[in-house]
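Throughout our pipeline, every protein is held as a single compact record rather than as scattered files. This encoding replaces a full spatial description with a residue-level series of whole-number codes. The remainder of this section carries one protein's record, kept here as part of the documentation.
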Amino acid sequence: MAFSVNDIRSALKFGGTRNTLFNVQMTSPGYLGGSQADQKMVFTARAAELPESTLGTIQVGYFGRKIKLAGDRVFAPWTTTVINDEDFLIRNNVESWMASINGHQGNLLSAPAVNVNYKSTAIVTQYAKNGTALRTYQFNGIFPVAVSAIQLNWDQTDTIEEFQIQWDYDFWTVVAGTTGDGGTLT
């Protein structure tokens, strides 16, 4: 097959998806009163990921040969990078969320977080260049498991602080968009 620019053009008839056209919407547990932080997350989540999809493999041996069978679905942790504002609103909300799951001193789950009330939902939406939602993933049963350090440094100028949040969740689904359902059958 000879190389042709027209082949590339026809394969990318929409011009390719831009990784900058997305937003993250968080819903923290109601007992935290984090609605302001949730609203701010839409504007300060600087980086995120569309979720990974992985099926495990089961190897079955027989007379020295192995066959592979499909195993269980695995949901990898999800990471967001957040721009920190001087109100520390999002970081404080996430730290409070984590403290309600397991306290710093008492190693206990706080009363409002019992019965897995600490789990919530989040969505990440990828947009087309015309503003149409291409795909929206919803993370169900999500909760924060790690908040990264914020590097303080006298030599860094003309930058804004940011930090990462690692989330675990029960499962994700494709809930909207123009590109199909991603095989998220029940």
User: Anything to note?
Assistant: The mean pLDDT is 91. The radius of gyration is 21 Å. Residues 16-176 form a domain with the Pnp Oxidase; Chain A fold (CATH 2.30.110). The longest helix spans residues 89-101.
